[in-house]
């Protein structure tokens, strides 16, 4: 017969109170060629120790552990699983006085390691199949092997159950990897959605900021050629730039010839505000329009003088009404 193509290292537990059974398992499950049952009988009858050898149907690479009582076997299963070196198959005798019987042993083994495959080894029928199944509901995880057993039966069961145990573990690992990948993809998708929401909020916030800036420096037309820009609150370079850009764009769009900058709502005239006014006035002149400053009170005027700012060349009026009247007269409205 042909030799198996691949050997898989398999941990097998034998729980039996009979030392002779331990010897049988050691002989049957050792790796290497074994005599067929017929050849073994011939050797026993005729003493032909040089009888031809044949390879077994399935080649096994077995690490075998032996236990004499059920409690001992259960503890070995628990320790092996804790070390991360679980057993694939457990061969368990049905009767092991004075300890627990095989059914109870396998029941406890399943509690310690729900993946292990089990085989009952018995020469007696103390319990019916129905009684065994009532105590062990996992009927797909154990088989019954009648004593005396053939070596090929033991080897075939060991190989088949080991392969089943190995495939179940491989499927479990593949399923766990799939779940992990799905979780990763879900997390990635959630992160992308959150980043998209943040970008949308950022865009909306920028739009709101721009809208507020536009509202903070409105351009109010008072005639076809004149506009008023009421300035309110504190001014810094950024806000001044926004105000200046809006005003210059409005001048070009409307063909404005007079731009009234009203500072009635500015609480104090500091150096930053004075510089913004000078820059804005110069830019307005470059577009061919005349800048007019209104609402500059006595305190603000003193602050400008203290700063050394003269605003020379910039027409000023005490009140907005006076500046509007000037613009209307100039354009004969």
From TrEMBL:
Coiled coil: none annotated. GO terms for biological process: phosphorelay signal transduction system. The keyword Oxidoreductase does not apply. Keywords: Phosphoprotein. Residues 11-162 form the Response regulatory domain. Residues 216-327 form the STAS domain. This is Response regulatory domain-containing protein. The keyword Transmembrane does not apply. The modification 4-aspartylphosphate is found at residue 93. Gene3D superfamilies: 3.40.50.2300, STAS domain. CDD domains: STAS_RsbR_RsbS_like. The lineage of its organism: Bacteria, Pseudomonadati, Myxococcota, Polyangia, Polyangiales. It comes from Sorangium cellulosum So0157-2.
